[in-house]
Protein backbone atom coordinates (compact mmCIF):
# COMPACT_ATOMS: atom_id res chain seq x y z
CA UNK A 1 0.00 0.00 0.00
CA UNK A 2 2.79 2.42 0.91
CA UNK A 3 4.82 1.55 -2.20
CA UNK A 4 1.80 1.93 -4.49
CA UNK A 5 0.94 5.35 -3.04
CA UNK A 6 4.55 6.49 -3.39
CA UNK A 7 4.81 5.24 -6.98
CA UNK A 8 1.54 6.90 -7.97
CA UNK A 9 2.61 10.22 -6.47
CA UNK A 10 6.06 9.96 -8.06
CA UNK A 11 4.55 9.37 -11.50
CA UNK A 12 2.14 12.27 -11.02
CA UNK A 13 4.98 14.61 -10.03
CA UNK A 14 7.12 13.43 -12.92
CA UNK A 15 4.36 14.09 -15.45
CA UNK A 16 3.38 17.41 -13.92
CA UNK A 17 6.91 18.85 -13.52
CA UNK A 18 7.89 21.24 -16.32
CA UNK A 19 10.93 20.30 -18.39
CA UNK A 20 10.93 16.73 -17.06
CA UNK A 21 10.67 15.28 -20.58
CA UNK A 22 13.42 15.56 -23.18
CA UNK A 23 13.16 18.89 -24.96
CA UNK A 24 15.54 20.60 -27.32
CA UNK A 25 17.75 23.13 -25.57
CA UNK A 26 21.03 23.49 -23.80
CA UNK A 27 22.28 20.31 -22.16
CA UNK A 28 22.93 21.98 -18.79
CA UNK A 29 19.38 23.34 -18.53
CA UNK A 30 17.86 19.92 -19.23
CA UNK A 31 20.12 18.27 -16.65
CA UNK A 32 19.34 20.90 -14.03
CA UNK A 33 15.60 20.59 -14.64
CA UNK A 34 15.74 16.80 -14.56
CA UNK A 35 17.75 16.90 -11.31
CA UNK A 36 15.27 19.39 -9.86
CA UNK A 37 12.36 17.12 -10.84
CA UNK A 38 14.07 14.09 -9.31
CA UNK A 39 14.74 15.98 -6.07
CA UNK A 40 11.11 17.14 -5.95
CA UNK A 41 9.98 13.54 -6.49
CA UNK A 42 12.18 12.31 -3.66
CA UNK A 43 10.99 14.97 -1.22
CA UNK A 44 7.32 14.45 -2.02
CA UNK A 45 7.70 10.65 -1.91
CA UNK A 46 9.38 10.89 1.52
CA UNK A 47 6.65 13.18 2.87
CA UNK A 48 3.92 10.88 1.58
CA UNK A 49 5.65 7.81 2.98
CA UNK A 50 6.02 9.52 6.37
CA UNK A 51 2.35 10.61 6.34
CA UNK A 52 1.09 7.15 5.31
CA UNK A 53 3.24 5.49 7.97
CA UNK A 54 1.88 7.90 10.62
CA UNK A 55 -1.66 7.15 9.50
CA UNK A 56 -1.00 3.41 9.78
CA UNK A 57 0.11 3.86 13.40
CA UNK A 58 -2.97 5.98 14.12
CA UNK A 59 -5.06 3.17 12.65
CA UNK A 60 -3.18 0.66 14.85
CA UNK A 61 -3.84 2.86 17.89
CA UNK A 62 -7.52 3.29 17.08
CA UNK A 63 -7.95 -0.43 16.45
CA UNK A 64 -6.21 -1.22 19.73
CA UNK A 65 -8.43 1.27 21.57
CA UNK A 66 -11.59 -0.22 20.01
CA UNK A 67 -10.58 -3.77 20.90
CA UNK A 68 -9.58 -2.73 24.42
CA UNK A 69 -12.88 -0.88 24.85
CA UNK A 70 -14.86 -3.97 23.84
CA UNK A 71 -12.83 -6.28 26.10
CA UNK A 72 -12.79 -4.03 29.17
CA UNK A 73 -16.45 -2.98 28.95
CA UNK A 74 -17.64 -6.55 28.31
CA UNK A 75 -15.57 -8.14 31.08
CA UNK A 76 -16.28 -5.20 33.39
CA UNK A 77 -20.04 -5.53 33.00
CA UNK A 78 -19.90 -9.28 33.60
CA UNK A 79 -17.85 -8.65 36.74
CA UNK A 80 -20.10 -5.81 37.89
CA UNK A 81 -23.27 -7.89 37.70
CA UNK A 82 -21.64 -11.12 38.87
CA UNK A 83 -18.53 -10.50 41.03
CA UNK A 84 -18.30 -14.25 41.60
CA UNK A 85 -17.05 -14.71 38.00
CA UNK A 86 -13.66 -12.99 38.46
CA UNK A 87 -13.33 -14.46 41.95
CA UNK A 88 -13.75 -17.97 40.58
CA UNK A 89 -11.27 -17.32 37.73
CA UNK A 90 -8.66 -16.11 40.20
CA UNK A 91 -9.40 -18.78 42.80
CA UNK A 92 -10.68 -16.27 45.36
CA UNK A 93 -13.51 -16.71 47.84
CA UNK A 94 -16.06 -13.97 48.50
CA UNK A 95 -16.70 -14.35 52.23
CA UNK A 96 -18.53 -11.10 53.10
CA UNK A 97 -20.60 -8.26 51.73
CA UNK A 98 -17.51 -6.06 51.68
CA UNK A 99 -15.66 -8.64 49.57
CA UNK A 100 -18.63 -8.81 47.16
CA UNK A 101 -18.70 -5.00 46.86
CA UNK A 102 -14.93 -4.85 46.40
CA UNK A 103 -14.94 -7.42 43.60
CA UNK A 104 -17.84 -5.66 41.87
CA UNK A 105 -16.18 -2.27 42.15
CA UNK A 106 -12.60 -3.18 41.21
CA UNK A 107 -13.31 -5.81 38.57
CA UNK A 108 -16.63 -4.42 37.41
CA UNK A 109 -16.73 -0.67 37.83
CA UNK A 110 -13.08 0.12 37.23
CA UNK A 111 -12.77 -2.04 34.12
CA UNK A 112 -16.04 -0.77 32.66
CA UNK A 113 -14.97 2.83 33.22
CA UNK A 114 -11.55 2.18 31.69
CA UNK A 115 -13.19 0.53 28.69
CA UNK A 116 -15.39 3.59 28.16
CA UNK A 117 -12.26 5.78 28.33
CA UNK A 118 -10.66 3.60 25.62
CA UNK A 119 -13.83 3.99 23.52
CA UNK A 120 -13.66 7.78 23.89
CA UNK A 121 -9.99 7.64 22.86
CA UNK A 122 -10.92 5.75 19.71
CA UNK A 123 -13.67 8.24 18.85
CA UNK A 124 -12.19 11.60 19.85
CA UNK A 125 -8.89 12.99 18.60
CA UNK A 126 -8.26 15.01 21.78
CA UNK A 127 -8.46 11.87 23.94
CA UNK A 128 -6.61 9.52 21.55
CA UNK A 129 -3.08 9.99 22.93
CA UNK A 130 -4.11 10.11 26.63
CA UNK A 131 -6.05 6.86 26.14
CA UNK A 132 -3.01 5.19 24.56
CA UNK A 133 -0.87 6.47 27.44
CA UNK A 134 -3.40 5.02 29.90
CA UNK A 135 -3.14 1.65 28.14
CA UNK A 136 0.64 1.77 28.39
CA UNK A 137 0.72 2.78 32.06
CA UNK A 138 -2.30 0.99 33.52
CA UNK A 139 -2.29 -2.23 31.51
CA UNK A 140 1.50 -2.29 31.49
CA UNK A 141 1.44 -1.80 35.27
CA UNK A 142 -0.96 -4.71 35.62
CA UNK A 143 1.35 -6.88 33.51
CA UNK A 144 4.45 -5.98 35.51
CA UNK A 145 2.69 -6.47 38.85
CA UNK A 146 1.29 -9.80 37.70
CA UNK A 147 4.73 -10.91 36.51
CA UNK A 148 6.35 -9.85 39.80
CA UNK A 149 3.69 -11.66 41.82
CA UNK A 150 4.06 -14.76 39.67
CA UNK A 151 7.84 -14.81 40.09
CA UNK A 152 7.84 -14.11 43.84
CA UNK A 153 4.83 -16.24 44.80
CA UNK A 154 5.21 -19.68 46.28
CA UNK A 155 2.31 -21.30 44.43
CA UNK A 156 2.13 -22.06 40.72
CA UNK A 157 -0.28 -20.04 38.58
CA UNK A 158 -2.84 -21.26 36.08
CA UNK A 159 -3.98 -20.41 32.60
CA UNK A 160 -5.96 -17.38 33.83
CA UNK A 161 -2.81 -15.61 35.05
CA UNK A 162 -0.72 -16.57 32.02
CA UNK A 163 -3.46 -15.50 29.62
CA UNK A 164 -4.06 -12.21 31.41
CA UNK A 165 -0.34 -11.46 31.56
CA UNK A 166 0.09 -12.20 27.84
CA UNK A 167 -2.84 -9.94 26.94
CA UNK A 168 -1.55 -7.16 29.21
CA UNK A 169 2.04 -7.17 27.92
CA UNK A 170 0.92 -7.40 24.28
CA UNK A 171 -1.61 -4.57 24.69
CA UNK A 172 0.83 -2.30 26.54
CA UNK A 173 3.60 -2.84 23.97
CA UNK A 174 1.30 -2.18 21.01
CA UNK A 175 -0.07 0.93 22.72
CA UNK A 176 3.49 2.17 23.36
CA UNK A 177 4.39 1.61 19.70
CA UNK A 178 1.27 3.38 18.45
CA UNK A 179 1.81 6.25 20.89
CA UNK A 180 5.47 6.66 20.02
CA UNK A 181 4.97 6.67 16.25
CA UNK A 182 1.66 8.50 15.90
CA UNK A 183 1.65 12.22 15.10
CA UNK A 184 1.19 14.62 18.00
Percent of residues in β-strands: under 5%
The unreliable regions are 1-22
Shape: elongated
| Biggest sheet character | none
How many strands in all? Answer: 0
Mean pLDDT: 80
> Any idea what the radius of gyration is?
26 Å
User: How large is the count of helical segments?
Assistant: 6
User: What sequence of helices (H) and strands (E) makes up the elements?
Assistant: HHHHHH
Tell me the span between the first and last alpha carbons: 23 Å
Structural class: mainly alpha
Helix content: over 70%
Quick summary:
The longest helix has 55 residues, at 27-81. The two termini are 23 Å apart.
Give the helices and strands, then pairings.
Blueprint: H1 2-16, H2 27-81, H3 84-90, H4 97-123, H5 125-152, H6 159-181
Characterize the structure shown.
By secondary structure, this protein is an all-alpha fold. The protein has a domain at 56-181. 84% of the residues lie in helices and 0% in strands. It is built from six helices and no strands. It has helices at 2-16, 27-81, 84-90, 97-123, 125-152, 159-181. α2 (27-81) packs antiparallel against α6.
